[in-house]
Amino acid sequence: MGFDIYGLNPKVKEGSVKPEIDWESKPSKEEQKAYFEAKEEYQKENVGDYFRNNVWWWRRLAQYVYENVDGVCEAEEDCGLWHENSGHQVDEATALRIADKLEELIKQGHTAEYEMKIDKIMEKAIEHNAKIDKKMKALKQEVRKLTGKDLAPASYPEVQSKKWDKLYQQRKWEDSYPFSVENVKEFADFCRHSGGFEIC
């Protein structure tokens, strides 16, 4: 799962033509490949056209934006819309304000400090989860010894199933949400050239 962010009125380089393909005509693999390569080149030339993050990268980026840019979330539910594929739109004035603020935060070193903070949080979560994984592996061996089978946790005997649930609840999901200055830079650049955007 990912988040596709589309520019509503992106600035387009003079002479740049957005590639198109007629999917109903069942294009060949070669035609599809040529289309995707042309599309990728177009998006490199026109950075306000499209931005994408997988769900893990987008969660942190979106949170960083609305926690540091005034007026992005007028209400709490507005922030929630940043985490849905529902087509939430951000107007051009707000997109430009986001670009200005993110560039300022990068210049001030705030974004780099935040990246280091997130790296430390992730490192601790990874260490913690490694211990949990070791316990889960031992539990799997216990189930195999007890039943003579390799079972999925959902099929564990009741006692071991409860143990697995308890261990699973102790996992820290912070290990899955990365953050980088480079990703913020790319998003700021997209915002500046997007003419407003839609989160899908």
Fold blueprint:
Elements: E1 2-7, H1 29-45, E2 50-54, H2 55-68, H3 76-81, E3 88-90, H4 92-108, H5 110-147, H6 158-169, H7 181-194, E4 197-199
Antiparallel strand pairs: 1-2, 1-4, 3-4
Could you name the key traits of this structure?
200 residues; 7 helices; single chain; alpha+beta
Describe the global form: extended
State which percent range the strand residues make up: 5-15%
Question: Main beta sheet, described?
Answer: 4 strands, antiparallel
Trace the largest sheet across and list its strands.
Answer: 2-1-4-3
Number of strands: 4
Distance between the termini: 11 Å
Low-pLDDT stretches are none
The helix content is: 55-70%
Rg over C-alpha atoms, rounded to the nearest angstrom: 22 Å
Structural class assignment: alpha+beta
User: What number is the mean pLDDT?
Assistant: 95
Task: Please tally the helical runs, counting DSSP H or I stretches of 4 or more residues.
Answer: 7
Question: What is the N-to-C order of secondary-structure elements (H for helix, E for strand)?
Answer: EHEHHEHHHHE
Give a structural overview:
With about 200 residues, the chain is α+β, with helices and mostly antiparallel strands. It has helices at about 30-45, 55-70, 75-80, 90-110, 110-145, 160-170, 180-195; strands spanning about 1-5, 50-55, 90, 195-200. A four-stranded antiparallel beta sheet has the order 2-1-4-3. The chain is extended and about 70 Å long. The model has no long low-confidence stretch (mean pLDDT about 95).
